[in-house]
Amino acid sequence: MADQTLDAKGLNCPLPILKAKKALKGMEAGKVLEILSTDPGSVADFAAFCNQTGNELLSSNTAGDVYTFEIKRA
Amino acid sequence: MLDTMDNTKSMSIIVTKGTLDWAYPPFILATTAAAMDVDVTMFFTFYGLGLLKKDLDLKISTLGNPAMEMPMMGMHMKMPNLVSAIPGVDRMATTMMKNLIKKKGVASIPDLREAAVESDVKMVACQMTLDLFELDQKDLIPDITLGGAATYMEGALKADINLYI
Questions:
Q1: ipTM of the complex
Q2: Architecture of the domain spanning B10-164
Q3: What is the reported pTM?
Q4: In chain B, where do the E strands start and end?
Q5: Is A13 an annotated catalytic residue?
């Protein structure tokens, strides 16, 4: 489903957001970036990031200690 | 950079502190805001100016900081001022802090500063502070401009968020 995956596990705020932004920058519009994170703050942060930037948060899931997000590049 | 575009949000941060702990809030906010398409200007003045040096060797001090608790062997350690004043204690506390930063996956300040440069955060060094502390612009990173209070005001008057840290 995702066109690209970013493993941000073990990274703390604001690194998951900064790395996601960098990855999105290099992708074409409409492509989907999957992000894996272990930072509990990233759940609220990726929602806020997408609200502000217009990129679409397709999904936000938790499995154990890992949070998974799918973001569609605007 | 994009201040002619009407709907671009902008933020300014006055950075006045140059210790390792206080370097985090301005750089975290600046890089995150830039990632959220905000036009960011950081104005480095007084002790904050040291954060623009090419060679960063940032330290923390426990002196005069009663709120500071460092995790240690499952406990939290506070440092009385009398102990903080002993030579070597700040160095030890700095080492502990740097180890924690690595262990917890927190970005280093040089990394955050590099991210700020990459994402076009505008960094302004206070000319007066350079003169006052006899600092040389050659010792600062090249990605900066020099300016004074009027430079700051021009941007701040148009900004959506102005912070003083």
A1: 0.90
A2: 3-Layer(aba) Sandwich (3.40)
A3: 0.90
A4: 10-15, 39-44, 69-72, 75-78, 122-126, 144-147, 161-164
A5: yes
